[in-house]
Each structure stands twice: as structure tokens, then as C-alpha cells.
Amino acid sequence: MPRQRFKKRIQQTIPTTRVGVIVFSEDEKSLLLVRHRKGNRQYWIIPGGRLEYGETFHECAVRELKEETGLDVEVEKFVFLSEAIAPDRSRHIVNIYIKAKVVGGVMKVGNEPVLAGVDFIPLSELERITVFPPIAKNIVDALSAGFTGDIKYLGNLWV
After folding, report:
1. Which of 9, 36, 99, 117 is deepest in the core (most CB within 10 A)?
2. Buried b (16+ CB within 10 A) or exposed e, 96-134
3. H-run or E-run covering 151
4. What's the confidence (pLDDT) of residue 159?
5. Residue 77: beta bridge partners?
6. Could you tell me the pLDDT band of residue 12, with boundaries at 50, 70 and 90?
7. How far is 17 from 148, CA to CA, in rounded Å?
8. DSSP string of 102-124?
9. Would the pLDDT of 3 be above 50?
10. 5-15 as b/e, with b when 16 or more CB fall inside 10 Å?
11. pLDDT at residue 50, rounded to an integer
12. What's the CA dihedral at 129, 113, 159, 51 to 10 degrees?
């Protein structure tokens, strides 16, 4: 019993680190997204997931993309950093966004129960769909600028 209380306290005091992977279609006109299903809600997110202990950001990006989409990727560069802090401070997620390109695999929805779909969504449709965290505009703007410059901090994106 004391072990569980300790574990719970750790979860509330240490932020979760999530690696999100930005992948475009070959013609750079579509963005790879995965659809999540939670209860009656569905929304799109940048594929990725929790960084595991002892795993590099690059290793996490490659593993998560394979698990969620069936695709093999090669990491190109770090592009964004953001946080998601709940107003009541019950959750704190640090998001690291990495740009990568597809080098193999076959696109398919991963086995996680929360996954409801995977697809390349045309950039022109990003304004009409719900993407969490809300970074679609940042991605489109960075693509137009050629992803030049340093990693950009996007702030607290809790929604």
C-alpha cells in the first residue's frame, strides 16, 4: 500500500515527456495524423507518445511512429517544444516535436485501443479539423519557411 501512494505522488510531481513526430507526404501537401477516440469524442493528433526511461528522443520517435502508423521514419530535426499544463496542475506534459520522413513500412492503424485512424490530411483541411495540441498553423508556417532556424517554444497549449 505505501508503494502505491509513492508512485501516485511521483506521477503528480514529474511531467510526462511526449515526442510528437511531424511527417509530410512526399509532395509536402499533406500531414500525417492519427485519430484518437476517447468516449464519444474523436480528434486528430500528431503521432507520437511517451518517452520511455533510457530512450533517446530519436528512438522514441521511430518506435512510436511504427507502433501507431506502421511506418518507418528517419528523424530529420527538432522543430518545436511546448507544454500542456492543466489549469488545476493535475497534468503536465512536455511536448518535443521532431520532423521526420518516411523511409519504409506500410501505413496501418496501430493496436492501441485509443487509435481510431491514421491518414495523411491535406494541409488545406487542417483549419477545419480538431488537432490537439493546436499546432497545425505552426506546422504549416514552419513548412512555408523551410523549417529553418532554432527550435521554437510554443508555450502552454493545454486545451
Report:
1. 99
2. bbbbbebeeeeeeebeeeebeebebbebeebeeeebebe
3. none
4. 82
5. 99
6. low
7. 24
8. EEEE-----S-TTEEEEEEEEGG
9. no
10. eeeeeeeeeee
11. 97
12. -110
Domains of the chain: residue spans and CATH: 2-156 (3.90.79.10)
Q: How many residues does the chain have?
A: 159
Measured distance CA(132)–CA(141) in Å, rounded: 17
| Residues contacting residue 45 through CB under 8 Å, at least 6 positions apart | 20, 33, 34, 36, 131, 132, 133
DSSP state of 145: T
Please name every residue paired with 30 in a beta bridge, in sequence order, or none if there are none: 122
CA distance 101 to 77: 10
Q: What is the per-residue DSSP string for 1-43?
A: -HHHHHHHHHHHHS-EEEEEEEEB-TTSSEEEEEEEEETTEEE
Q: Is 135 helix (H, G, I), strand (E, B) or coil?
A: coil
Cell numbers at 44, concatenated: 486528430
Q: State the Cα torsion 117-122-127-133 to the nearest 10°.
A: 50
